[in-house]
Amino acid sequence: MASFVVAITGASGALYGLRLIAELLRRGDSVELIVSPSGALLLGHEAGLDIAESPATEVAEAVRRFVTERYGVNTDAGELHASAHTDLMSRFASGAARPGAMIVVPCSMGTLSRIAHGNSGNLIERAADCVLKERGELLLVPRETPLNQIHLENMLKVARAGAQIIPAMPAFYTHPKSVDDMVDFVVGRVLDMLGIESDLYKRWSPPPTPTND
Q1: Which residues face 33 on adjacent strands?
Q2: pLDDT of 115-155, one tens digit each?
Q3: I need a labelling partner for 196 at 20 to 30 A (CA). Which of 13, 19, 28, 183 fits?
Q4: Running DSSP on this structure, what letter comes out for residue 11?
């Protein structure tokens, strides 16, 4: 069983985080979920998950129920826990925790900025800081457009520190037929970067070359 930290912050794209959690639980992995206050509002607005005032245990239960019903996957094999974003006594606030990887999905520009500058004011930022200093895997999935110079410089800064930047940019060569198809493409790329095989999208294969026969 692999261990992952998944953080959901206040950038549009809650379904990216939820779909990733569904897939990790389906595989039997252990997931520690951290939701920022803006991320909680986002989950309510985009997914109908009213968790803004809920304790961490209820957040985990609500998210597990949602992903099981929405994606029709068996999540019983995996473990899902949640920590309050204010819980700086969490084991993930220490570099000794060593999660398999941490994924911030979606990642707001504010969260990106604070990670880039080592400004750890909550558990999401502190856990990301620990992953970087321990040379672990940190994946950030920003969802913002257009990008200004500050955004780009912050992305470059965290990339140089060892993070992977995976913008939420769905492709269309797969001929997506629904929003879920586009979400699956992005989540499939995240899983690729984690070294996890999935069938969430088809890899690019060039069409056959026409012949003159």
Answers
A1: 6, 82
A2: 999 999 999 999 999 999 999 999 999 999 999 999 999 99
A3: 13
A4: S
Locate 172 and state its tokens: 């269309």
DSSP states along 89-144: TSGGGSGGG--SEEEEEEE-HHHHHHHHTT---SHHHHHHHHHHHTT--EEEEE--
Q: How far apart are CA 102 and CA 127, in angstroms?
A: 8
CB neighbour class for 100 (10 Å; exposed up to 12, middle 13-18, buried from 19): middle
Q: CATH for 3-193?
A: 3.40.50.1950
Q: What is the pTM of this model?
A: 0.94
The domain spans of the chain are: 3-193
DSSP 12: S
Give strand pairing partners of 102.
Answer: 5, 138
177, 171 Cβ separation under 8 angstroms: no
Show Cβ contacts of residue 21 under 8 Å, excluding neighbours closer than 6 positions. Answer: 6, 31, 33, 63, 67, 80
- For the segment 154-175, the average pLDDT, to the nearest whole number, is 96
